[in-house]
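Chapter review: from sequence to fold.
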Amino acid sequence: MNKPAPQDDWKTTLLALDSSIQQAIGSLDASGLQIVMVVGPDGKLAGTLTDGDIRRGLLRGLALASPLEAILHREPLTVSPRMGRDDVLGLMSVHRIHQLPIVDESRNIVGLHLWDALLSIPARNNLVVVLAGGKGTRLRPHTEHCPKPMLPVRGKPMLEHIVDRARREGFSRFVFAINYLGHQVEDYFKDGRGWQVDISYIRESEPLGTAGALGLLRPIPSEPVIVTNGDLVTDLRYSELIDFHNDNGADATMAVRTHEWQNPFGVVQTDGANIIGFDEKPIWRSQINAGIYVLGPAAFDAVGANEHCDMPTLFNRLRERARKTIVFHMHEPWLDVGHPKDLEIARREDNATARKAH
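The token string follows.
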């Protein structure tokens, strides 16, 4: 799911249901967005209209003073705020439309997607912190002479895939937290100029955990920061994740995935000695930490310099301080390269297996 950011100026397209065609023309001229989103007395979307609807209405003999209800398209195509960018673009392409209202479950208008805006990639000033200091002991012998994030997958290191994906979404500022064989990471990426980005480094004298390196980050960021493990192969859109974090006013967001495990045996349900039911090879589902996060400035106050800290501990600290911590349910292909078999899957040219494996 690749969620596009709603346009800030969508409210200029709103018009009351009891307005006239003349007022609709004025709204189109004022907004320049080529659509009017009409709001009913209950505050919900009643319909939409465009300049084409107005022209057709006038050709039918309607006057400028006629109510716009006469030309209103009452069942316009709409999307949920949760629909991703790629799906939105596909929908707009199929229906050949350039404006698409965003409504919530109650049909309240919450935004407007514009074709041209979706095709452009805005620059993102948010920092991307990549945790690349682990020893990768479970991946030995592959990691005996190579840090885990530098292991090649489909022609280049996993870490480079992360940089490329984030860069394509407008992110250009990176910090790599390095420890084990960290000089190999620095020798390869240097300052990032080869990728048209800026890369700096946090050098841990000893492993500090998945959150401990953040205590060494200076200056403390004033905007939300993306933090990701450096051993992930995924199609997640970082821009979608950070937009979700911002839209929900969160202090910390954790990407999670649904993990399914099927019991290979039939389960007998009992009450004391009595059998009360059977569940044949049940499937258990749980939400697992995907190793990708967004942290607001308040989160950095909860990690001390040179303090060992992992992400669950950090999230618990924020909860204890009444900070807002939320989850982002991701559905994109994702693979945590923690074992040799995972590396084999990630290295296959066709990533379909990785999609099915997790």
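Two observations follow directly from the output. The two ends are 16 Å apart (CA to CA). Residues 124-357 form a domain with the Spore Coat Polysaccharide Biosynthesis Protein SpsA; Chain A fold (CATH 3.90.550.10).
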